[in-house]
Amino acid sequence: MTATRGFGIDIGGSGIKGALVDLEKGALIGDRLRIDTPRPATPEAIAEVVAQVVAHFGWDGPVGITLPSVIKKGVALTAANIDPSWIGTDADALFAKRLGLRVEDVVMLNDADAAGLAEIRYGDPAAGRGVTTLLTFGTGIGSALFQDGKLVPNTEFGHVEVDGHDAEKRAAASVKDNEGLSYPHWAKRVNRYLTVLENLIWPDLFIVGGGVSKKADKWVPLLDIRTPVTVASLQNNAGIVGVAAAAAEGLHH
């Protein structure tokens, strides 16, 4: 029987968010719960918060969890905006033990990959054709790459070098806030970044997401690039929805 409900948790640099998900609609069921990311954001501290979120909803099925990390076979290989002690951590095993689940019932995905899966499945049908790149603008810049709807996992396009700088150090949404940039000023930086990226991978479509996508009308129309740009339809809930669907299907990377 195909599951109609799932559960996803999105771990970010500033907050850990979880919710029940309607897998037929690609929408949250009720409100999500958000708890500030602990400092330091060590594996043990984050596992404790994840357990609180799961307990809050009384969920006992498979759990999907995103991390701002490269994930291979459940192991975190990088740590962006979380504690460096994550590197080399078997996240599958850590969360399964803390939640009292079998390892196969915990599915770990890179946060942008999870958001991309949600957009491919529930968003603009054009996203499932050709080369599509989802970019999440938040604390950093996450990326997900798809060829005809199939995920190429663990791309790190937020770290492409642009004019001698790591792209996310110039164009992440956090940089806009920290430097007090206007939307037009920040949009110029995003435009420059997208120009460099489109000349590297020649995508058919960019999908822009992350918290700043809620204000897409203030900056997306200012972009002037070759590639069509669409706004993530699930906005900031895409990670939760995508990883819940992956967990329900046992999709491991």
Automatic annotation (TrEMBL):
One Pfam family it belongs to: ROK
UniProt feature coiled coil, ranges: none
Family annotation (CDD domains): ASKHA_NBD_ROK_PPGK
Highest taxon, organism lineage: Bacteria
InterPro entries named in the record: ATPase_NBD (IPR043129), ROK (IPR000600)
Record-stated family: Belongs to the ROK (NagC/XylR) family.
Identification of the protein by name: ROK family protein
Organism: Amycolatopsis cynarae
Lineage, highest ranks first: Bacteria, Bacillati, Actinomycetota, Actinomycetes, Pseudonocardiales
